Hints:
single chain, 459 residues, alpha/beta, FAD/NAD(P)-binding domain, Elongation Factor Tu (Ef-tu), domain 3, 16 strands, disordered C terminus
Amino acid sequence: MRRDPVSLVTVVGGGLAGCEAALALAKLGRRVRLVEMRPVKTTPAHQTAGLGELVCTNSFKNERPTTAHGQLKREMKHLGSALLAAAEESRVPAGAALAVDRHLFSRALTRRVDEDPGIELVREEVRSIPEGPTVLASGPLTSDALAESIAAELGDGGLAFYDAIAPIVHADSVDRGVAFPAGRYQQDADYLNCPLTETQYDAFIDALRKADVYEGHDWENVPYFEGCLPIEVMAARGHDTLRYGPMKPVGLQDPRTGRRPHAVVQLRREDRAGQMWNMVGFQTRLRTGEQRRVFTIIPGLEDAEFLRWGSIHRNTYLNFPGRLNAYGSSRRRPDVIFAGQLTGVEGYTESAASGIVAGINLDRVLNGEEPVLPPTETMLGALYRYLREADPNDFQPMNSNWGLVDPMPDAPRKKALRREAMAERAERLFRRWIEAEGLMPVSAPRSGSMSASAAAATP
């Protein structure tokens, strides 16, 4: 039985996370006020007033469960994802990927919200954090007024407006016969170092200068900070600029030659298990295909598996590990839960999945129950683990990838078999978690909860 009589909750933002949160809460018996500022106040990126408008790609990426995004979709399906249902209605041929007609997709998602009797859709700008239980899913283009309110709630350093991201590669794909562990001047060997000869460095710089740069939309144009320049900008300033910057070889010795390399690319550990390695100082605006072509010139990275691509763009997101509870709430107000890209997840499905989790946990908070998160062997659980355990002094957004997930003891050596085993484990443990926590697919009100129609009629 509900121990809290509150029937009305607010969801801010009509994107993927907001729609998932609103529909989850309504199906759990809550009366929901979903607030979207478009078309009353527009953004430089959106073109319509439709809910769940896809402003970038029309793809939700791979559906195969052996891929990170495929496994995440399986977990979302168990939770009754509205995104996946709307995507099935509007999908277009795209091989192993789930791609959609973006206009039909937005209509399908909007229709689901409009037809739910437990949801009231309101078109207005939210300028401050609402009173009462709230899911805040206002996205990376959060209005200035609301961003100021969030910053005031979370305190200094709680909100970022600029995102400079370097690529991340999987440890298994780095050639350890070339890359060597070492710290500068024989300090702790905390880095993997990819050494380049003068000839290799010249070839890398030549390829980098000729590479195609993503210009982006006007809303992505940002001023560059001198301490965080794109590598292609540094390369354009002079042939040796990178060699005296992030690729400086001082204090390092290649064990194969016993000499200092002409240049070096350093990889820094991103996770405790050492599965993910960040290319230090390699923030870039190269197109994805160009990043693969240019960065695989680097010795030791010829067969690199990229878990995250580099980018530099405007992006409003929270310092999740430094300012939020494990499930994404304000530490001062546990009934205010953040979801979507605002929390530091990258990608459509990641944002939507966090909306479902936010809806489930806000309902639990209002029931007097403890919030829940999936185990870290699952894709969704591993993503939340990253959000809460990342270094708050250097927190950057992250997409789902197998490098986040706890490694398997005695895992198969072949990558394909290893991913298959990890996917099977994730599926098994996710189902077990749902059963253990008394969860069910968010497709009908829980036993003991009001029906959506009854909730909608509650004064």
